[in-house]
Amino acid sequence: MNIRPASVSLTFLALCGSLLFSTACTVTETLNDVLSSTTPGDWYHDNGLLKEEYKALAFAAVNRDNLLQDMARGRGEYLESMGKLLGVPPSHEQEFFGLAQRRMEELTLSERPKPAEIVTALRYDSSEALQTELRVRARPALRESQER
Question: Model's pTM, two decimal places?
Answer without folding.
Answer: 0.61
